[in-house]
Structure formats: C-alpha cells, structure tokens
Amino acid sequence: MFEKSVECSKCGKLFPCDKVLSVCSECGGALLFRYDSDELTEKVSKDLLARRQKSFWKFIEFLPLSSQKSIVSLGEPYTPILRLPNTHDVSFKNLFIKDEGRLPTGTFKARGMAVAVSKLKELGIKRVAIPSAGNAASALAAYGTKAGMDVYAFMPKDVPTAILKESVFLGAKVYLVDGLISHAAKIVEKLGRKYGWFNLSTNKQPYRFEGYKIMAFEIAEQFDWNPPENIFFPTGGGEGIIGLWKGFNELKELGWIEKTPRLVLVQSSGCAPLVKAYNEGEAEVKKTWENADTIAAGLRVPHPYASYLILRALKETDGIAIAVGDEEILSSIKAFMKMGIYACPEAASTLAALRKLENHRILDTDENILLCITGNLMKYFDTIKLERDKVPLLDKDADSLD
Ligand SMILES: Cc1ncc(COP(=O)(O)O)c(C=O)c1O
Ligand SMILES: [Zn+2]
Questions:
Q1: Does ligand 1 have an atom closer than 6 angstroms to the CB of 344?
Q2: Fold for domain 81-106+206-380?
Q3: 350 in contact with ligand 1, CB cutoff 6 A
Q4: How much distance in Å is there from the Cα of 108 to the middle of ligand 1?
Q5: How large is the C-alpha radius of gyration of the chain?
Q6: Ligand 1: residue whose CA is nearest its atom 9
Q7: pLDDT (tens digit, 9 = 90+) per residue, 347-375?
Q8: What is the C-alpha separation between 280 and 20, in angstroms, rounded?
Q9: Is the pTM of this model over 0.70?
Q10: Angstrom distance (rounded) from CA 386 to CA 389
Q11: CB atoms closer than 10 angstroms to residue 52
C-alpha cells in the first residue's frame, strides 16, 4: 500500500513493486522494498497500532501487499518477550528472549513465508521452489500449500527427521540432496528455469525480508519504542538479520526509534563464514566454508548469497560476529530448558555466544540484551544424541530399581 519501489542494495537500480522480482538484473544484488515514509507518517501512528489487536498482521501498512484480502495466514501470533530469571549463569542483568518458536511451523521462518506467499499469490505465482536447511522449506510448505501453490522443497539428506516429515505431511514435493544447501540451491536454479518455478532462495528475492522485518516492529513496540541495545541473532543465510536491520532502519526513518540496536550475529564454529569475514574486515564472504558441519542445521550455510548486505548490517550497527561450538550449543540448550525455554540448536547458540562474550567484557552488564529464540527444540530432538542403552530398562513387573 505504501511501497514506492524496490531498490538494489548493491547498485541502487530501481524496480517496480508490482512485477515478479528476484535479484538485480544489473549486478545480482539483493533487492529491498522501499516505502514512502512521509505518507506512512501521515496515515499510521504508534497510537493507531496500539489500538489494534496484537498480531503479526497489525503492521500491514509496512508490507508490500495491496490489501488485507491478499493475506495468507495460519494464525501468526505476536510473539512474546520473556525476561530471563536472574538464576541464569551470566552476569547480565537485563536479559530477554523473543520466542519465535510459537509461530506456525515452530520457527521465525513462518514470517518470511507468510509475506512472500501472500505477495506471490497476488502476483499470480502458482509454483514455488526452495533450497533449504529445513525450516524455510517446511514454512513454505505450510503457507504455499495453504495458498494452493505447488511447493518444491530441496534439502540436505541429513535434515532433521521431524522437519522432513513436517514438509512431506504439509504436502510439499520434497527432494533430499546428497550435499549441502548450496548444492540444493544450484539444483533449484537449474531446474527452476526448466520447470517454471519461482525460486524463493534466501536473499534472492525481496519478499521474505519483509516478513522478518516485522520482528523489529514487534520488538520496538514491546519495548515501548526503546528497543534493547543488543540483539543476538543466529545466522545462516542471513535473511533474518537483514530483515531485523531493515525493520529498525525503517522505524528510525519514521522517527519512531532513536537508534538501531547493535546486532550480534551468531554462527557455529563448524560453519562460520560470516564471522570470519567480518572479523577479518572483509566486505563480503569470498570463499566457501570447507567441510561445514554443525548440529545447528539452519546455520550450515557455507557461502551465503549477498553476504555483503549481512556484513553491512553488522558494520552499520557497530555489530559483533561470534562463533560457538556444538558442545557450547548443547550445554545452552540444556540451560534454556531449565528456564522453561525450548530453544532449537540455532537459537541456543545465542546463549552460548552471550556466555562467551561475558569473558571478553565487550558488553556492559547493565545493557538490555535480547536473544532471538528463532525456533523450537521439539523439531530437533531426533538429532541430539542420547545413549539410549544408558537409560535403565525395567522388566514389566519390576518391583525394585536394581
Ligand atoms: C531455527 C533457525 N534459526 C536461525 C536460522 C538462520 O536464519 P537465516 O538463514 O535467515 O540466517 C535458521 C535457518 O534455517 C533456522 O532454521
Ligand atoms: Zn544492482
């Protein structure tokens, strides 16, 4: 309603909003919707938003949809912020989480797909395809099939079983790839042209960012338009963190917040191309990460597309990039569980990162810190090892524990 153009984030070329778009035809850069902030300021206010029912779609004016009728919804809640108890094992006093695991399909990926599918339906798209570590595929399966589209999903063959089942049960045509997400992406690229699919690959279309940016809108409103100084976000392909940054920038442009929070990008040390590039002062990831391996399936992206944009978001917010090991992630999963928070490995990496940063003394212990719990642990239990033989097996009529 208030979008005025789509802009290449690399060369600045402008594109119309009502055409089906992928990446910049000039330079391959990622495309971003731009809005008319004067018109938005005139028509929408914080007070108006406060009067609306708390839901993801309350920010409809900030999305590139022509009307409410375009919305493809599975009942997305406005996800809660919870304050962590002071019993946790770090000394930061103002620690919060945002629980994205409550969204349909159990991860924040629902946001991107809810908006992308709504927009693509408006544009007349009937067949969509995605290479995915898993959660983006199941979210697309949920929204795409709800919109009556054919959904083709390509994921690494070792994707968590629950996510594979979820995608199949939701009605996607699922293909496992004997490789990583980067191999799946090449297959979608090749076959997409042959079969006429719209390719919903991470950072290769402007639609998904718009859904993720609503996280920033919710966070800002939940913190009374004074968002936390630091936001930790687990990052693989980078759409989540780019969406957050875009959302906060739009709010700053409207004058609704003063400052974009510092973004803390977290990866697994088994696949940390962004952390390496950022900490070495590079403007983009130049080399594919070799032998990418981590229990945090969504962070196993060896060479993210449009990495320059992710690194720009970090630089602009005086951000931090940090990698944590799988053992640290596992220990954080357990620590979170004891606080009543079921964080998937990607999400638990944020607590592991916080524990690590505590030793570095970079953040002030009084600052507000928000950890984004991007998904629910239940989807991953089958990937976390438990030595079953060590759990005692009782006879049917056991009358003692010996
Ligand atoms: C639960 C979860 N958290 C975080 C991420 C990373 O998100 P992004 O690819 O947008 O960086 C993923 C990606 O699959 C994920 O599934
Ligand atoms: Zn361009």
A1: yes
A2: Rossmann fold (3.40.50)
A3: no
A4: 8
A5: 21
A6: 237
A7: 999 999 999 998 887 888 889 999 999 99
A8: 37
A9: yes
A10: 9
A11: 12
